[in-house]
Amino acid sequence: MRILISLLVTAIIVYVLANFLPGVSVDGFGSSIIVVIVLAILNIFVSPILKIISLPITILTLGLFSFVINAIIIMLCAYFVNGFHVESFWYALLFSLILSFVQSLVGGLSAQS
After folding, report:
1. d(Cα 74, Cα 91) in Å, to the nearest integer?
2. Transmembrane stretches, by residue range (predicted)?
3. Cα(43)–Cα(73) distance, integer angstroms
């Protein structure tokens, strides 16, 4: 049940962010739920492979390259989900940064209550 609530909260965050960021759009709340599910699947299967492949450059950049990997995951999600559009790599990077930040805030608030 906790996973479903987490997915719904993340879908709400994705929907709100897509309405505020000019380079990111989502067709509706149903599409944002699909985006969250696809993001979860990509984070489970694709993200570890990309992190292993890019380990040397991640070490050289002191971990900052992981932001690039997150943006790539967002762009892959936009490729797979029809109702989700990201204009450029920079919007994907900004979207992933804000999404991670807001998710950690919401997660921290829910853990305290």
Report:
1. 10
2. 28-50, 57-82, 88-109
3. 7
Give the residue from 110, 105, 95 showing the smallest Cα distance to 36.
95
CA dist 76 and 66 (Å) reads 15
Which segments within the chain are labelled E, that is strand? 24-26, 84-86
Measured at the CA of 75, the angle between CA 17 and CA 99, to 5 degrees, comes to: 30
Domain-wise residue ranges, the chain: 2-100
Q: Which of 75, 96, 94 is nearest to 86 (CA)?
A: 75
Q: What is the pLDDT of residues 28-49, one digit of tens each?
A: 999 999 999 999 999 999 999 9
